Structure formats: C-alpha cells, structure tokens
C-alpha cells in the first residue's frame, strides 16, 4: 500500500469514525484471529469467496454513517461506558462530516419550509451554524 493510499484511508477513518484508533484495534484483532485460525475448505471455494453481508450489519453501518453526518458518536451518547465519548456523543458532539451531512442530512433540511429565506443555504453554512 502506498503512502498516498494510507493517507486517504487515514483521512476517511478520521472523518467517519469518532474513534478511528479503537476501530483499527478491533479490526486488526479480528483479522489476526481469522488469519491464525485456518478455515475448513469448502467445496468450490476460491480466493475471492466472501461472506454475504448480513442485513443487520448493513443497518449498523448506516447508523454509523448517519452518526458521522450529525457529529454523533456511533453509540449516539447512549453508553456511559463508551470508550470514545463516555456517553456524551449525542448529535453535535463533534463537527459533522461535511460529505456525509450533504448526503444524509441536507436533503431533509432543505425540504423544510423556511420563514426568512427563499434560497436554501449550502451545506457548509448549515454545518457551521449558519441556519441549522
């Protein structure tokens, strides 16, 4: 992996995850466990066989993305024992990710009727406190 690829991965993890180091430690531990435990060969297995993604995992991933869009911890501030936020990670806990905000939050905000403005504010103004 090149330095630029690592930099891009680091940038993504820092933007999307409230605790990128914790995520990396969990992922590394899981990968190490899988690599040290040989799997039984399955008929028709190839190098590219992948476990199907479970519906609950897709939903959990979407919850994490929405938390990033709203500047919340992935526990949503509901877990006092959370190592990332200690239960303080409600929306607005950190600066929302601008790209995730534009994708998930801004469309809903722009659909709301406004009393004073006829022109919707761009996402950068909404995130920085211009209107939202």
For this entry, give a set of tags.
50% helix; mainly alpha; 132 residues; 5 helices; globular
Report on this structure:
By secondary structure, the protein is mainly α. The protein has a domain at 3-94. The protein is 50% helix and 0% strand. The protein has 5 helices and no strands. Helix 3 crosses helix 4 (98-111). The protein is globular and about 65 Å long.
| Overall spatial form | globular
The total beta strand count reads: 0
Q: What is the helix fraction of residues, given as a range?
A: 40-55%
Low-confidence stretches: none
For the report, how would you describe the main beta sheet? none
Structural class: mainly alpha
What's the alpha carbon Rg, rounded to whole Å? 19 Å
Termini, distance in Å? Answer: 40 Å
What is the number of helices?
Answer: 5
Assembly form of the protein: single chain
Strand content range: under 5%
Element-by-element helix/strand order: HHHHH
Mean pLDDT: 78
């Amino acid at each position: 992996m090149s330095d630029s690829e690592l930099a891009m991965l680091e940038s993504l993890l820092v933007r999307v995850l409230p605790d990128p180091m914790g995520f990396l430690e969990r992922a590394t531990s899981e990968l190490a466990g899988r690599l040290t435990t040989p799997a039984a060969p399955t008929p028709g297995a190839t190098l590219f066989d992948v476990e199907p993604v479970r519906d609950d995992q897709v939903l959990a991933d979407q919850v994490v993305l929405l938390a990033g869009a709203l500047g919340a911890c992935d526990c949503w501030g509901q877990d006092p024992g959370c190592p990332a936020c200690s239960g303080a990670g409600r929306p607005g806990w950190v600066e929302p990710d601008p790209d995730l905000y534009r994708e998930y939050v801004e469309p809903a905000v722009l659909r709301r009727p406004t009393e004073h403005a006829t022109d919707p504010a761009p996402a950068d103004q909404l995130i920085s406190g211009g209107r939202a």
